[in-house]
Amino acid sequence: MKDNENRPNTSEQSSYKRTFMRILPALMMLYDITAIHIAYFLALWGRFDFMISQIPAEYLTGYGISITIYSIVTVSVLLLFRLYNSIWRFASLTELMRTLEASVLCSCMYTIVMTFLVARMPLSYFVWGMLLQFCLVLGIRFSYRFVMFLRARRRQNAEDAGRVMLIGAGAAGQMILRDLRNSDATHDKVVCVIDDDPEKWGRYIAGVPVVGGRDDILQNVEKYHVSKIYLAIPSAPAEQKRDILSVCSETDCELKQLPGMYQFVLGQVTVSKMKQVSVEDLLGRDPIKADMEEVFSFIHGKTVLVTGGGGSIGSELCRQIAAHHPRRLIIFDVYENNAYSIQLELRERFPELELETLIGSVRDSRRIFDVFRDHRPEIVYHAAAHKHVPLMEDSPCEAIKNNAIGTYKTAYAAMLHGCQRFVLISTDKAVNPTNIMGASKRLCEMIIQSFDARIKEGRAQDIPQLFTHEVCEIEGGRLPAVDLRNVHTQFVAVRFGNVLGSNGSVIPVFKKQIEKGGPVTVTHPDIIRYFMTIPEAVSLVMLAGTYAHGGEIFVLDMGSPVKIDTLARNLIKQSGYKPDVDIKIEYTGLRPGEKLYEEKLMAEEGLKKTENDLIHIGCPIPFDVDSFLSELENLMIVSYENREDIREQVQRMVSTYHPADNSKGVTRTGQTLAAGTAAAG
Q1: Is 522 inside a domain boundary?
Q2: Could you tell me the end-to-end alpha-carbon distance of the chain, in angstroms, rounded to an integer?
């Protein structure tokens, strides 16, 4: 009640304002009369070096007799020009011109009357008097607008200013705090600091309180009305950052962080160096660090072929390879738009690069053999594949033709033409596959394992030629005369998780849905996936080319899996919206062939370490190579005949393949896909 009694009454305020507005013209008239007296006195005083004793008596008498009458006449003219009725908050050129016209008119009349009827005054008296009168009369009117402008600007600055929570009371945090206070580019204000060190709690940094640790973030965001959170702990491990950012993502605050220790060491810790928190920052592991010098010395001076070179992984491979001086880079892709795009980019960035961009399909054995015959690549990165799970479920024969048979034909051409290394890009969906795409990629792994096994046994000649046409005669010119007992091609596979930002990945899809205002569609609230970035994926592919001895399946330790639902909610928050309030999330159900969980290795596979702690080698699962290779020809025939029993044929060859029936929530072997069930293996 006391607060209400002390609070000014709104109706009383309005009444005072109306009264003031009624008397404002009278106050302005009194001001103008006073301003005119002052203006002409200053003009006379200044004429005699601001010494009153030097002013002749007749000039003082003339000023005293005329100035009051002149000021009243001037106010009358200003009244006729409607300069007491203007809304000076919106004063413009019109009011300025009216004031100028009234001042000039009145001053001219005053000069004539004084000269001929009262007393001859100095010319400077009239000139400076008119100028000073104009400035004083106009100044008070436009000063109101200037004051209103300053108030509006201060109000806008206050609205634009963010109330910042700073996470990290160390040296980096203090640099950010100091830069915020000295910066003219931002009006953000740090209102509280979070640090996990209990010794700092309750203390102050430059007057800003350290209010607690990460467990206190949410309550202090509400307490201090925080709108922005700056993470300034560049030396923290990725997992610690992920945990803190996960807490921060539960707020509606804008999140920014320092890129890393590099800026800190160089003393570049400023607000301008802060970056938006990306989805990659929530992966919870440090990026893979590879000795790329070893990789690039392996590539240097060699002819390198990248199949699927226009795709997200293939194009990044091309960029990395082109930057490290291969003798020749060959981009091979069936989709000409992608191939043309990366071709233009590489020619602009690397004008000295010997670049060939070829269009064709890995399913076309004539075309792929011609490419190997004409260019003799020493290293092949095989990225060409159909990868979209639901689409492949609808067209299973196409998955087998392109992924499995296409890989076989490319691998066979590489072997016959003396290729040194053949690196297959596989996927974690090849582990215990429940969809035809994953099963086709497992077939690809088995193909390169079969090739490697036969080569090491000295039985490369026993690897059958799989063609849908008869071109096996050496006299035809397509197949080289090669002693297959001396083949030394090394075949390896690299197994990936989902790649952030790649074509067809969930991130671009979610962003487009958010831009349209939603809804964001998630197949299942409990679905989880392993993620990695495109640069990491490319580093692993290239490392496989240097670590390889033949037959390995390289696996990246991708850290903790991420819930797709959490990923979607974080993206919505980072876009400035509230999940399920501004942007709805809809659960559409598992798609054909889709699993709740992905696994990196099969239960039967073990792991071997490599020189890099984040890269492992999966020990191949034994299988009958002779039987497998003999069945491949039948699989090719079944796929090219587009037969509906293609899945049954694949199941006979891939024992771990259990097609899922997501419409019933179970796999076709009866394995439950209910939420919360642990993934096999």
Answers
A1: no
A2: 68
Give burial (CB, 10 Å; 0-12/13-18/19+) of 180.
Answer: buried
Give yes or no: residues 319 and 219 share one domain.
no
What's the rounded Cα separation, in Å, for the pair 545 and 109?
97
- By DSSP bridging, strand 666-667 and strand 660-661 are antiparallel
Strands 528-529 and 562-563: antiparallel
Distances 659 to 167, 255, 571, 648, 679 between C-alpha atoms, Å:
48, 42, 32, 9, 15
Q: With pLDDT > 70 as the criterion, what percentage of the chain qualifies?
A: 76
Question: Quick one: which H or E segment has residue 680?
Answer: none
Residue 568 lies in a domain: no
Which has the higher per-residue pLDDT, 660 or 310?
A: 310
Asked if 117 and 179 sit in the same domain, the reply is no
- Residue 576 Rama label (left phi>0; alpha psi -120 to 50; beta): left
Q: Report d(CA 279, CA 154) in Å as an integer.
A: 35
pLDDT, average across residues 463-485: 63
Q: 328 and 454 share a domain?
A: yes
Which of the listed residues 244, 277, 310 is the one where a domain comes to its end?
Answer: 277
The span from the CA of 282 to the CA of 243, in Å, is: 8
pLDDT of residue 264: 38
Across 653-680, average pLDDT: 51
How many other CB atoms are found less than 10 A from the CB of residue 34? 12
Identify the pLDDT of residue 398.
95
Same domain, 173 and 104: no
Q: Helix, strand, or coil here: 200?
A: helix
CA distance 541 to 544: 5
pLDDT digits (tens, 9 = 90+) for 553-602: 888 766 667 778 877 887 787 676 778 888 899 998 877 766 776 665 55
Q: What are phi and psi of 551, to 5 degrees?
A: 90, -5
Which of 102, 113, 110, 138 has the alpha carbon at shortest distance from 126? 110
Is the omega angle on the peptide bond into residue 396 within 30 degrees of 0, that is, cis?
Answer: no
Are the beta carbons of 329 and 299 closer than 8 angstroms?
no
Write down the pLDDT at residue 113: 83
Same domain, 66 and 213: no
Tally of domains within the chain: 3
Inter-residue contact 84 to 78 (CB < 8 Å): yes
- Contact between 247 and 155 under an 8 Å Cβ cutoff? The reply is no
Q: Average the pLDDT over 147-160 and give the result.
A: 58
Within a 10 A sphere around the Cβ of 402, how many other Cβ atoms? Answer: 22
Q: Note the pTM of the prediction, 2 decimals.
A: 0.62
Both 152 and 172 in one domain: the answer is no
pLDDT at position 266 is 37
Q: Within a domain: residue 510?
A: no
Do 328 and 442 reside in the same domain of the chain?
Answer: yes
Strand partners for 256: 230, 276
Helix (H) or strand (E) holding 634: helix 625-640
User: Residues 548, 612: contact at Cβ < 8 Å?
Assistant: no
Do 623 and 537 sit in the same domain of this protein? yes
Tell me which residue range forms the domain holding 377.
298-468+476-497+531-557+603-658
Predicted confidence at residue 593, as pLDDT, reads: 64
Quick check: is 585 in a domain?
no
Among 277, 309, 336, the domain boundary falls at 277
